[in-house]
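Incident log, support desk, overnight shift.

02:14 A customer reports that sequence design results differ from what the structure should imply. Their input is reproduced verbatim below. On-call engineer (initials T.W.) acknowledged and began investigating.
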């Protein structure tokens, strides 16, 4: 589709409450366009405070009924979840308004800036947020379009997943789940890791190979054997495995003390208020990309010392009655396992709860969920699950979270199923004691943040 972004004045977003959609909408609003949008969660009253924050930023919000699209609308943007049968798509077609997928628009935006694209199965949002902070520390005034809110921006009353800076650099997440990552041609491409998620490994390798070929400079995690195979220049690569040789950015001396991690990158000491070795990997990736872009190791260390985190990424809600509560976006097997392991140095016992999302992805990854979570659990740890979150659309409901729990029980794990998550605290009575950490995991469901806070206050 041949769209001149400079000539677009009044774009309309269908599904604007979604993390990816709201970020691009806010970015365009910040560049002077008059943005509007709708979401079915507005119809259902399930969007939390997203609608209010969008409207506070000047974006007009509508129910998903077609009323927001007018002859003045010059572009309609649809998320992956929007089907052609939606009333607003039909209305846009009838008015001859061009309809563009979210990723196509992001590709146009990325082409207008010096872009650093963060790709990989896990850690994209955290790395994006860390990199944004480092570039700010270095005085480069970056822009960002992220899949999750930065706490530093949320504190200013924003959704936190987009910011328009005055500099030439733009940091974006590059999503492989729908294949859209191949549309970007970034100045710097960063590959964090590759694991089975959404697609089989063979297909993912092909997708990320195209991402590498489309990037002018490419930086990969040599600690991950799949991403290491796509290295373009070892001098741009990073590694957290001390057996690596010849890489440009080497992490050493990792230590976790409670909710704080420390390590060195090329001898420079780093300390961050965050959980887990996987977040050291994210930090080193952000550091590598920032240095390639012109920042220094000292800029990176100084920025990350004050890093405030990402919404629902290892987000510590607090301690109550001797129990720590951590809210996390983990939703694929590797992420869930990493989140569990990151909490283990903090407490004698981790009680993890997970709400899978989507029947098809849960069925696709059933074996991997059981293996990764089962391997991460210590004998005293527990895993709880509630029923799969259904976001709507056409699907076959031929699997339940109880099936994963049954598989884990067969492996001798402390595994429990509570179909209705509203019954979770009552069911956990006696399982949580002072010294425990309660880890809450899940994605896509916009009510999870509120649920986590209700659990915390209910302890």
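02:41 Re-run completed on a clean worker. Output:
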């Amino acid at each position: 589709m041949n769209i001149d972004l400079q000539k677009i004045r009044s774009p309309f977003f269908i599904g604007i409450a979604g993390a990816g959609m709201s970020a691009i909408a806010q970015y365009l609003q910040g560049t002077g366009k008059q943005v509007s949008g709708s979401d079915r969660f507005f119809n259902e009253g399930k969007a939390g405070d997203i609608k209010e924050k969008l409207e506070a930023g000047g974006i007009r919000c509508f129910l998903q009924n077609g009323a927001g699209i007018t002859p003045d609308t010059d572009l309609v943007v649809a998320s992956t979840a929007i089907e052609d049968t939606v009333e607003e798509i039909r209305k846009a077609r009838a008015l001859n308004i061009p309809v563009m997928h979210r990723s196509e628009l992001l590709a146009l935006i990325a082409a207008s800036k010096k872009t650093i694209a963060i790709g990989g199965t896990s850690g994209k949002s955290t790395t994006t947020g860390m990199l944004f902070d480092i570039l700010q520390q270095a005085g480069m005034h970056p822009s960002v379009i992220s899949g999750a809110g930065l706490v530093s921006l949320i504190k200013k009353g924003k959704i936190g997943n987009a910011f328009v800076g005055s500099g030439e650099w733009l940091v974006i997440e590059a999503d492989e789940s729908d294949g859209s990552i191949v549309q970007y041609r970034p100045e710097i491409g960063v590959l964090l890791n590759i694991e089975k998620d959404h697609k089989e490994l063979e297909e993912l390798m092909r997708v990320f190979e195209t991402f590498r070929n489309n990037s002018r400079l490419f930086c990969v995690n040599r600690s991950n054997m799949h991403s290491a195979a796509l290295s373009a220049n070892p001098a741009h690569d990073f590694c957290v495995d001390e057996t690596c040789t010849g890489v440009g950015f080497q992490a050493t001396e990792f230590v976790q003390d409670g909710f704080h991690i420390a390590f060195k990158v090329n001898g420079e000491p780093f300390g961050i208020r965050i959980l887990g070795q996987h977040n050291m990997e994210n930090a080193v990736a952000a550091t590598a990309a920032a240095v390639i872009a012109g920042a220094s190791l000292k800029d990176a260390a100084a920025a990350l010392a004050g890093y405030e985190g990402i919404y629902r990424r290892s987000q510590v809600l607090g301690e109550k009655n001797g129990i720590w509560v951590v809210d996390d976006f983990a939703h694929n097997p590797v992420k869930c396992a990493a989140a569990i392991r990151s909490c283990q140095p903090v407490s004698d016992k981790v009680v993890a709860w997970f709400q899978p999302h989507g029947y098809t992805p849960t069925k696709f990854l059933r074996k991997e969920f059981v293996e990764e979570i089962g391997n991460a659990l210590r004998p005293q740890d527990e895993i709880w699950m509630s029923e799969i979150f259904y976001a709507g659309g056409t699907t076959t409901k031929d699997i339940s979270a109880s099936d994963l729990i049954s598989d884990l029980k067969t492996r001798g794990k402390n595994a429990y199923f509570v179909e209705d998550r509203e019954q979770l605290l009552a069911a956990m009575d006696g399982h949580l004691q002072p010294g425990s950490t309660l880890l809450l995991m899940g994605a896509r469901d916009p009510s999870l943040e509120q649920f986590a806070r209700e659990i915390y206050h209910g302890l």
